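In this supplementary section we document a worked example of the pipeline. Step one takes a protein sequence of length 443 as its only input; no multiple sequence alignment statistics are reported here. Step two produces a three-dimensional model, which step three serialises into structure tokens for compact storage. The input and output of this example are shown verbatim.
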Amino acid sequence: MSLRTRTSLALVLTLSARAGELHAQADFGQFNLVRENARLCIDQLQPAARRITSCTFVLNAGGIEKAEVASIHVARAQAYQQAGNDPAALDDLDVATRTAPKQETPWVARGDFYSSKADFPHALQDYDQALKIAPKDPAVYDNRAFALNAQGRHDEAIADLTHAIALDPDDVTAHSNRATLYLTANHPELAIADLSEVIREQPGNGKAFYDLGTAHEKSGDPLQALDDYRNATRLAPGYAPAHAALGRLLKDKDEQAALSELDAALRLDPHSPALETRAFLNLSLGNLSEAVQDFSRSIELSASAAAYTDRGAVYARQGQWDKALADFDAALTIDPKSLPALVGRAGAHYAQKSLAASLDDYDRVISADPSNAVAFFKRGNVHFDLREFSQAFADFSASLDLNPDQPTVLYNRGLAAQHLGRRKDAELDMRRAIALDPSLSKP
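The serialised model returned by step three reads:
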């Protein structure tokens, strides 16, 4: 969500109070000087220091009405905030609210200041006061919704945005912010309606097309989402999330195009989630060195258990077992209960013939997840290699109870049955296995 800014918040100084007096005195030079400084004071394109100087000049000149004094304090507060002097900004805003307590703008401006500092309770107090003065101003409802949402009061925020839209059906900020809240609440169809209004008003809004793509994805329409993300990258080529989303959707349709979009996202934002997507895409394409590089970068950015596990899995595919074990160990140091890391380490130990260590890890996996058919199969293989055929047969059977149609597990259980002298059981399992996978009949 975003705060709504309005040019009307910077009230135009009329200098009406002194115009007649100055004119009578024929002090045109002073009048014009005050008027010029007033113009510079409220001009948000001016450097902060210039605005502060001009606002101060006007205030020191004196003789202007209270409403105009308040507007100058608001403008100087904005300049102070821009310059990083928050205490001075707040002082000016306090003066503005005291000077013109029946004027909406000072309350809104101070509320916006508090919101920008995440002081939402004070922001809400000021927005409430502004709405007492101007109950039909949609911009105040927009910004109060922002503060309400930040306080976790999402339903109230949606109500405020709905009120703003009722007052101004073309309120782009309200439609956009309400769409964000609808997406968060998992109401993508409602978000689509709001975003369609935003795009109707602003057909060149690339961010709106990105949000629309997100809504279409959530509503189960990936093809429309793909078109939305394409529009987003066309209209906002510098917006990394749009490239990342387009690359993610393209990876199962056009791998090279997906890589191009993911590369673009990462050029714009090296911290983009596109990094993980590109790593897995490189992995699926067999670009193992590139996948390792991407996962290594992920670890540099956030040393998570998942990142170490993912890189360890690539090292395992490369047969670099020492590196794989080091990564799985690192993952388990971060998260001792990580089942993917335990499974990976168990497999690495098995590949290195460290059967006791492999068995211990598979024990932990099965204890944590007794419905893991693959873990029972893998532990059965360890028992088989240790010539513990009864335990191997039991594990293969447990795996088949969970998933009956596993030809390799059936075949291995047949082998265990042979070693146990159970010839009929062995023949039955092997026949069933070969029927499911004829390649198992080959020596």
